[in-house]
Design a protein that fits this description.
Blueprint lengths: L9 H23 L8 H16 L4 H24 L14 H24 L14
């Protein structure tokens, strides 16, 4: 069994903190401008953490994927908050019928893209992987 020690990994803690800050910023700005759709916000909230963490320190692929899933969930939570607060009244991009569906699709796509980029960064030449602990 393996574990992802988020509390003991500075690069992961930092990436999670930035993801939370981006999500809070999106909610705050959406409240100020409810008729404006911030199209890239869910993509950035979902995709930034795995990329930032992989740039900061070499990580295992599964750590990158778990971080992408976590940040995708945070982006979906921020989407739900913006919708619940009535701050998603702007237009949507084609082919999405509503800004809510657009934000959901971009959250999922951002998490997948962030994971792919994070894994690619991890595998770049010159990147070294940290040893894993085998003790439980």
């Amino acid at each position: 069994m393996w574990s992802l020690p988020l509390a003991n990994e500075p690069s992961l803690r930092s990436a999670i903190g930035w993801t939370g800050a981006l999500g809070a910023l999106w909610i705050g700005v959406a409240l100020l401008r409810p008729t404006t759709t911030f199209h890239l916000a869910p993509l950035l909230v979902a995709g930034a953490a795995p990329v930032l963490a992989a740039l900061d320190a070499p990580l295992q692929s599964r750590a990158v994927v778990i971080l992408a899933a976590w940040s995708g969930a945070l982006s979906l939570t921020a989407t739900a908050a913006v919708v619940a607060l009535g701050a998603m009244d702007g237009p949507s991009l084609a082919p999405f019928p509503s800004p809510t569906l657009e934000a959901i699709a971009l959250s999922v796509g951002g998490a997948a893209t962030g994971a792919a980029i994070g894994i690619a960064i991890r595998r770049r030449p010159g990147a070294t992987q940290r040893p894993t602990s085998t003790s439980s």
